[in-house]
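Support request, please re-run this one:
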Amino acid sequence: MLTFRIMAPQPARRASAVAGSWYPGHPATLLSAIDGYLGHVSDVVVGDITALVAPHAGLMYSGPVAAHAYRQLAGRTYDVVVLVGPSHHIGFEGVAIVSRGVFETPLGDIAVSADDADTIIATTPVVCELPAAHRQEHSLEMQLPFLQRLLPGVPIVPLVMGHQSRAAIAALSEGLASAMASRRALLVASSDLSHYHDSRRAAMLDRIIVDAVDRFDPEAVERALARDPGHACGGGPIVSVMRAARALGAADARVLCYADSGAVSGDTSAVVGYCAAVFGTFEAAG
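Re-run finished. Output below.
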């Protein structure tokens, strides 16, 4: 009689895919860039932070915006960071995870939290092992240098969404909320906004998403995406993370920065929009 044994996933070493092109490949140059962007941020939220939204374009374009979200992490502690981004290279159903190993950047290795990954897999039927979805994907990689600078040593769980259906979004948000209920977790949604409109048109389109995020209204984000998926490449990750953060106790949202690529390139004829936001329970100002 034949018997089968289910083999546990083997530890993976996910090599950097875009170091040296999308962001500096030399550690000192990369740190200098990250610290430069962080140094220009003065607005700091007081209170607990459960989740954030940050863009994932080339560092010189999106880094100044992403820094507004990541600056909020200085001095904070977390057990794990759960990253959720869109798939740019392959199409698939569900959500792809790497549950073992490390992700490389010029700043060193960042470990995957196997225990947290296993919990997410167990509580979230749409999540499965699919290393091919991560191999060339930049949406998560662009977050890693900021995390290594602000939360050194904190492990990650990397998740890439395939087809961003309503069912997948709902299942992921519910699964993350259940899996992270007893953990001090930071949830990160990686997303750019509209692509390749002139800056005036982009601002009009992006304002719909930015306002909904600032109101902490994931349902409004989802409705906008249903009407026009071009509002954001990572709209599914944004909605999933917002809903999970709300279920984990976050009550407040704040959009910290909005800009487009024209602010850096000078070309306002075809831009990409970027937003930085945080979610949690904040203290009133002043």
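The domain at 50-282 is CATH 3.40.830.10 (Protocatechuate 4,5-dioxygenase; Chain B). Residues 1-7 have pLDDT under 50 and may be disordered.
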